[in-house]
Amino acid sequence: MSDQQSGQGFRNSQSDSERETAHDVTIRHDVDEGMDELCEDIDEHIQWDSLSIPNLVGQTTVGGQIAPDLDNKRLYVWFAFSVLSIRTEGVFKLRFSLFDLRQMNGTTTIPVICQIFSDPIHVQSPKKFLGTCAMDTEEGSKRGEREDDPFSDDDEAVHSTRSKRKKVNGSLGNAHSEVGGASTGRGSGLYLDTIQRYMLDFDFEKVCSVSLSNLNVYACLVCGKYFQVYILPDSYEVTDSSLDDIKYVLDPRFTPAQVEALDKSLSQSYDLNRKPYLPGFTGLNNVKANDYVNVVIQVLAHVPPIRNYFMLQNFDDRSELVKRFSTLVRKIWNPAAFKGQVSPHELLQEISNASNRKFRLTEQGDPLAFLSWFLNTLHRDLGGSKKKDSSIIYSTFQGEVLIESQPVDTKAPSGAALAFDPNNGKRIVLRSILSVTSTKSPFLFLALELPPPPLFHDELEKNIIPQVPLATVLSKYDGKTIQESVADLKRFQITRLPNYIILHIKRFSKNNFVEEKNPTIVTFPIKNLSMAEFVSDLEKEKTLGLYYDLVANITHEGDPATPGSASYKVHIQHRAKEQWYQIQDLFVEEINAQMIFLSESYIQVWERKKAV
Prior knowledge:
Layout: E1 4-5, E2 12-13, E3 21-28, E4 48-51, E5 56-57, E6 61-62, E7 65-68, E8 75-78, E9 85-86, E10 90-99, E11 112-117, E12 121-123, H1 137-148, H2 156-170, E13 217-219, E14 226-228, H3 244-250, H4 256-260, E15 269-270, E16 276-277, E17 283-284, H5 291-300, H6 304-312, H7 320-332, E18 341-342, H8 345-354, H9 367-381, H10 392-397, E19 399-407, E20 437-443, E21 446-449, E22 467-469, H11 470-474, E23 483-484, E24 488-496, E25 500-506, E26 508-510, E27 515-517, E28 521-523, E29 529-530, H12 538-544, E30 547-557, E31 567-574, E32 579-584, E33 587-591, E34 601-608
Parallel strand pairs: 17-18, 21-25, 22-28
Antiparallel strand pairs: 1-2, 3-4, 3-6, 3-10, 5-9, 7-8, 10-11, 10-12, 13-14, 15-16, 19-20, 19-24, 23-24, 25-34, 26-27, 29-30, 30-31, 30-34, 31-32, 32-33
Helix pairs in contact: 2-3, 7-8
């Protein structure tokens, strides 16, 4: 019992669907569309024409359900249609047709059992809808007067930012965006001037405010809340130039020329509250305890090869993690943002899902563990393999180190040949017949051990903080310094330097009772860190560059043994201004370069300088 409408007249093509009833739309010719009251009595002489079925949105065929009467003496069949919407103004009637599929008998046609028409339905545009109040005339005239006023001196910078936003948006083309809050019409009479841009926040996960579902969710441009598409049954996009800035905030896009100019621009932008901010140096919300993720995202957003790749490439066929990271990087560098900060909430949700809840936004984690997982996951999702330069991750961060190891012979006789003599003077006895094994291993970061802090202090030294140069802890990779383990001796030397090298300063250790932190300060130069002493092929690396400049420095503050007291910060340089900034969640402030090494560095990223 089914019917599929052709949309021409009252004729219906029959099919073998299992639904039992359907309806058409008919329109009355001689009725004024501006009428305020519906006609209850329809004259027989009025002519009605059918409207094509695409103008009727919703479920047009349903199956019958049997419901007994209260006295249980008769049965009723009822048909429940989903939300229906008619896209054209006018007065309409719905025609319902009843079919019985049992009468098909192998034929392609089904006889109509009966038909019935609904009462007239008056369809109005949003502007004429009785529930919508027109704008107050006096308020509109006042607003017009304000628009005629010239800009004050305080507004010149904001005006220039708005002009720049229009220019940026002008190059967007026909970018698609689901901004359905006001999309109940086709560009006119939609009250687009009622949009409250300061209420919009596209950073949080798009979840329906009512059902908490993330399927077919649209944002209301007035209240900023999210609703599912059934709230907007017409479901078509509004194409109006006044919405271009909202589309750009929702999904910022950059040209190669714009990306190339990011590190050369000295100009600042202004948000809707007229507060200045620097694109690329915007704070990230700490939703709960995700500061360990925020610092890593800030670092990766300022490594030029990583930043440029994720800002320019199209990731429609990649994983959701790649897409959300790309979107967040572009929002961090957005010069036309509504707010001077960005929320990583969407990315955090996907990180939690992709890591099987290993990294959560409600529990503080280790930035190094997250960085290692994140880089390897991005490498895999981008189609990378074990081969060198198989992804942007490997071509940027991957290096190679030579590892030499030799087992310790604890039963060696006195006077046996010595293989190594550690610098600390402790002589380790090895038998000469024990061989040294050598392996080359790729790496994404180098781990550096700190010397143990002093256990006791006298009255004069109790406030002294131990310090060690970075070159001293890097000597682990000079090919001479020995690292002791339970059963082996090892030494390391770098055979291939990466373009960007990540250093991990190991500060934390665990015992049976508590986690401890080594407070030793590592001193280092901001520029021209030499790696000449730590490479095996000096001539080869010399042609590529042996000196590195600091790009980012992640620090740790607080006692890890005290819950809630630890926090992470990151130092990042503005290349055009040559000014360093300290970023902790939403707080962005300038810092002198001489003050950076005074913090307890935990992760550092260094950029290779081209050989001159």
